[in-house]
Amino acid sequence: MILNRFYCLFFILSLGLASGCQARPPMPTFQPKPPSTAPSLEPTSIVAESTPIAAVSESPTAALTIPPNIHTDPPVRFSFPIPGPIPSSGWRPPLYPVPWALTPYDHFYLLRPIAADQVNWPEPDYRYGGTYAELDTVHSGIDINAPRGTSILAAGAGQVIWAGYGLLRNDKDVNDPYGLAVAILHDFGYNGVRLSTVYGHMDRIDVTLGQHVEAGQQLGIIGMTGETTGPHVHFEVRFQYGDYFTSRNPELWLVPPQGWGVLVGRLLRDDNTPLYQLMVDVQNLDTGQKWQVKTYGPKNVRSDDYYQENLVLSDLPAGQYLVSFTCDEKDYQTQIGIHPGASSFFYFKKGKPISTEMPATPAPEDFLDTPTPTK
After folding, report:
1. pLDDT of 230-253, one tens digit each?
2. What is the domain count for the chain?
3. Is residue 301 part of a domain?
């Protein structure tokens, strides 16, 4: 069942969508330029409870020159729910090694930002693309709940491009919704574009701007800085130096547990507009275990270039599943196999049967490059 937790959510600017079903706006074109030579800094800690505000805002660890063409517009507003209890951790297999990609279109390149001996999977109520408060709030990442003081780990090797307060608007505002946050520009990417990751709401930061970190290295600790009602890490996957407008669903990038896979869906109306916030039930036919997941909201979410999805549910043990939902008072269902270490896809367009065939393969000249991440 869905658990209520403590989370960060981001209200972001409307890009001209009406409240009905409309196609998502095109992704902005970013032409990031890397910053000049990064300062050589020895690692130090920024501690939320003991660091004076003035000292934080003047520190070089909280400064970043964002390249041209990056949005710095504030969201409309932020609103955060009351958390529920921390979930109990159940046994899970170890993760596959990274990078992991069984097909040219999968890209499980990132480790979990929380260690395997802790709850390290997404809070089900606050997945990527979730919307709240009458569809005005869109979640640009995932939340992972953990006790305060738990280590937050780098999801991959790369350079620290942000460490401190003010990530949202590229300033030094100690009231920034992300709180103490770290951003990493990774040494690797996908389809010729480097990846970056964001880690929000820390109580303490243990790295500095310009520092190179390795996968699994501690970046800081779980906290409650910024707009949050309980301890967790807000985790985002972005392209290059992009802001939250370039975010992608982290569940398509975090490596799954061994023997487990990911469900990806694209659900449309008969006019090809996405079905927004549709509740989908997923049941393992062998064990009877059930999950629920909603399709993305209508504003400022970015689908994978290949899947063009509006639903992702990760960490499913391999096996046969029943996927069911109700659209305009009509029930639909289909069976689908979840395969170890891979993504399984289903497609629904109102008025037509559900398909479990993978999306069409691009023409040879359009094949996606999936390089192995290297330093």
Report:
1. 899 999 999 988 777 889 999 999
2. 1
3. yes
